[in-house]
Design goal:
Length: 314
C-alpha cells in the first residue's frame, strides 16, 4: 500500500506519519505541504521519496494508491472529491466537510467511484470507547446519558501544537462532530431531537467561543455536550457514560469506572493509539475491498445532525 499524506507537517499529519510507521506493508511515498522548501526538507528528514506543494502533483503519481488528508477543514470536501476523481482511496481527517451539502457531495462521489472513503472519526477507534461499544453489542450495557466536555484555551488562531494557523477552527463542525457521531455510533440510533446554544462571537475570529448542545435518540438516550475555546486548564474531551449497568469515564485512550478506578483495556485493540487504529482500518478496508467503519456514508447522519443544530442557532 503506497500512501500520500497531505498536510504532512501539521499536528495531525505528523500523528498519521508516526502511526503508519507501525503498520506493516504500508509505505509513505509522497507528502504534501503548502510551502515547497519546507515540505521538501520535511520529506528529506523523514526519508520520503516525493514532496509536493500541491495535491494535484501528488495525485498524478503512479506510486500513490491512497491519500490521507490532514489539511485545513475548509479544503476537505474539494480535496476528497479530487482524490476519488484521480482514482485514489481517501481518509479525510475530521470533519469530512464543514457543511451538509459538501458532506453529501463527498458521499455521492464515493458511491459513484466505489473507492474507499473514510472520515477521521477517531473516537470510534479509541480503545476506551471500543470497550464501551463491545459491551453494548454484547447486551451488557445500555446508554442512558452521555455527558461530554470539550475544552480548549484558544483565543488566538493556533493549532494543537500552539503554532499559528492559516485557517479558523470551529466548535460545531469540528469538535462537536466527534461527539455527535460517537453518540449515534454507540447508541446505534440516529438523533431524533437536538438543539444548540452558542455564546458571543469572537471579534476577530468570527466564531462562537462557547457552545452547548443537547441530543436525544428515539429510544430516549440523551447526550449533553459543552464546548469552549475559553477554558483555562487541562484541554481535550472528557466523556461520562451513564448506563443502566455502571458509569464510565473516558479520557482519550484511558477508561475509568464511576469511582475513578482504571479499567484494563489490554486486548481491546492491537494498539492504544486511536490514530494508528483508524489508519489500520483504512488500509485493511482497501485491501479487503469492503466498507470501513466510519465510512463517509456511515458518518453522514452525524453531519445531518450538525446541520440541524446549526440551523437552530439562527
Amino acid at each position: 500500500m503506497r500512501v500520500c499524506v497531505a498536510g504532512a507537517y501539521g499536528a495531525f499529519g505528523i500523528k498519521h506519519l508516526d502511526a503508519i510507521a507501525n503498520i506493516e506493508d504500508v509505505q509513505v511515498t509522497s507528502v504534501m505541504g503548502p510551502t515547497k522548501d519546507k515540505i521538501e526538507a520535511f520529506a528529506a528528514e523523514r526519508g520520503i521519496p516525493h514532496a509536493g506543494a500541491t495535491l494535484e502533483e501528488c495525485l498524478a503519481r503512479d506510486d500513490v494508491d491512497a491519500v490521507i488528508l490532514a489539511t485545513p477543514t475548509q479544503m476537505h470536501a474539494d480535496q476528497a472529491v479530487a482524490c476519488m476523481d484521480a482514482g485514489k482511496h481517501v481518509l479525510v481527517e475530521i470533519p469530512m466537510a464543514d457543511s451538509l451539502a459538501d458532506s453529501q457531495r463527498v458521499v455521492a462521489k464515493q458511491k459513484e467511484t466505489g473507492l474507499v472513503a473514510m472520515a477521521g472519526q477517531v473516537r470510534r477507534f479509541n480503545p476506551s470507547h471500543q470497550w464501551i461499544h463491545n459491551k453494548i453489542k454484547a447486551g451488557e450495557l445500555k446508554i442512558q446519558q452521555m455527558d461530554v466536555q470539550t475544552y480548549f484555551f484558544r483565543r488566538s488562531n493556533t493549532n494543537a501544537k500552539g503554532e499559528p494557523r492559516s485557517w479558523t477552527d470551529h466548535l460545531l463542525w469540528h469538535h462537536a462532530c466527534h461527539t455527535v457521531d460517537l453518540f449515534q455510533y454507540q447508541t446505534g440510533e440516529t438523533v431524533s431531537e437536538s438543539f444548540g446554544l452558542q455564546g458571543p462571537m469572537h471579534p476577530d475570529l468570527d466564531i462562537a467561543m462557547d457552545m452547548a448542545i443537547g441530543m436525544k435518540t428515539p429510544s430516549g438516550a440523551i447526550c449533553t455536550l459543552s464546548l469552549s475555546f475559553n477554558n483555562e486548564g487541562p484541554f481535550g474531551t472528557f466523556f461520562r457514560y451513564i448506563c443502566d449497568n455502571g458509569t464510565y469515564l473516558a479520557r482519550y485512550d484511558d477508561l475509568f469506572d464511576g469511582y475513578d478506578k482504571p479499567i484494563d483495556l489490554s486486548g481491546v485493540a492491537v494498539s492504544n493509539n486511536g490514530i494508528e487504529l483508524i489508519d489500520r482500518e483504512f488500509f485493511s478496508a482497501i485491501k479487503e475491498g469492503r466498507e470501513p467503519n466510519a465510512s463517509v456514508a456511515q458518518v453522514l447522519p452525524a453531519m445531518e445532525t450538525l446541520d440541524t443544530i446549526e440551523r437552530s442557532f439562527r
